[in-house]
Amino acid sequence: MNKTLAAVTERIRQRSADSRGAYLDGVDHMAGRKRGVERMGCANVAHAVAAMPANDKLRIVAEKAPNIAIVTAYNDMLSAHQPYEGYPALIREAAHALGATAQVAGGTPAMCDGVTQGQPGMEMSLFSRDTIAMSTAIALSHDVFDAALLLGICDKIVPGLLIGALHFGHLPCVFVPAGPMSSGLSNSAKGKVREQYAQGLVGRDELQKAESAAYHGAGTCTFYGTANSNQMLLEAMGLHVPGAAFVHPHDDLRAALTRQAVSTVLSIAPKANYTPIGRMVDERCIVNAMVALLATGGSTNHLIHWVAVARSAGITIDWTDFSELSAVVPLLSRVYPNGTADVNDFQNAGGPGFVIRELLDAGLMHEDVLSVAGSSLRPFARVPTLAADGSSVDWQDLTPASGDDSVVRTAAAPFSPTGGLKLLQGNLGRAVIKVSAVPDDRHVVEAPCRIFDSQEGMQEAFKAGELERDVVVVVRFQGPHANGMPELHKLTPPLAVLQNKGFKVALVTDGRMSGASGKVPAAIHVSPEALAGGPLGKLRDGDVVRMDATTGELLALVPQAEWEARENAKITPEHAFDNAHGLGRDLFAGMRRNARTAEEGAVTWL
Length: 606
Description:
By secondary structure, the protein is an alpha/beta fold. It is built from 25 helices and 14 strands. The protein has 2 domains: 3-33 and 66-182 and 217-397, no CATH class; 421-600, IlvD/EDD C-terminal domain-like (Glucose Oxidase, domain 1, 3-Layer(bba) Sandwich). Helix 6 (87-97) links the parallel strand 1 (67-72) and strand 2. The model has no long low-confidence stretch (mean pLDDT 94).
């Protein structure tokens, strides 16, 4: 095993010993109780099964058959979640065939960041994760279940479901994905039209045509953003049926994988093979997820989300852990925005199974972990196929070579010897940068800054031609306390236009850029945030800022005495009011007040 991997894992284990021990005590206490229908009062049980068919009532009450909770994030507005509409019926049918029952225990909200980009709804996006976690807990609070299947894919939905499930850590759980949409207009072509629109070279009709050609059917968006990073990380954690992540929603194999999820969760529910999710998700499992993120150049959002996930299992990780792992984990895939391929190309080239196999063989993942497939991660280094009967799943080994080495490579010949993320720190605080998508000649940017308190202000300055120079654009008051830490995708096209003109350009923000962080160098998640007294509040227009991804520095090049004497800028009352009111944002005031820092996962429940 790689020495750094072992050392980081051991440090996390020691750091988390007390909280993890307390968490596992709680898991064991809950697991030691009688089953729900045997423990609860007759009226409670009658309510729980009242609407079920008579045969199912008999199975649960008299035959003591296992009862599976289905927690679903189905809605038919999200392309990724629309396929879930028919899953409960399929799951119930598969459960019946195995002598079990299944109930939809509850639904969770599932918002689409693609719809809310640049809109007020985006300011509820991050907090939707904890809302989903709470709704998952409410669904499972009926406490009559022996296991759970969790149906969700997209950005905040998977972390929210996982956080909620870990608060019911005594339950065996399997996550059930639905797969990506078929490839449409390439991500590169779509990005080019966005840049042309930002310059006024094409109109809204042309932009709408391009966007609709890219996002055109059922399934997850095909770029390697937060949603698809979620699926890669769940594979690396052993929480999917092996290889389930990137099979198309309408492929016959997808239905077989869903039926297999029922069989799998039932196989880890009996006492003889009892494997609760709280035991599976230990420090080794969390490190495996971190490694998978780094090896694939995944979403920067997970430097927030997986900190929160780990905390839910009594484990504490931080950005230093990510940074040290990134120094030894090779970059094994290039999927847009880190390359031109999409996730369908990634799957065809070997997909998660290829990456996991290479990392295991290189000693860069923990193999001896509990998973839904047993006491090893090795089953996740294979690829699923439809069995001869046309309804079940077989697995086969992958070829030693990549199916396309422009998309996926071996650990012996990676795209880069180090991972896709880096920690930045200095007198402006701590931040992260996604370097996997940024060419080497842009890893260092030093230029006067221009400060904005909103992305709309930056866009207006761009349109007015005020940014036609080397510039570090600073967008502050975008953290969890200020406005829920929205993603700032709308900044990417104008910044890319400036960069394409030959200017040295960078972004510094206490907001997020998500899994779509692109070729413009961006120091994001700056912590502490400006509203909480963070040093971004000390910056003034014209200060020279140095962002250095090679040395890991984020500095305001201001004399120290002057820097220390400066007062922090204050958010205007009008801006603060706009961040907190309208379109439901008022309801999230408590979350904004209680949110921890980005490096602490921006959690609202501690």
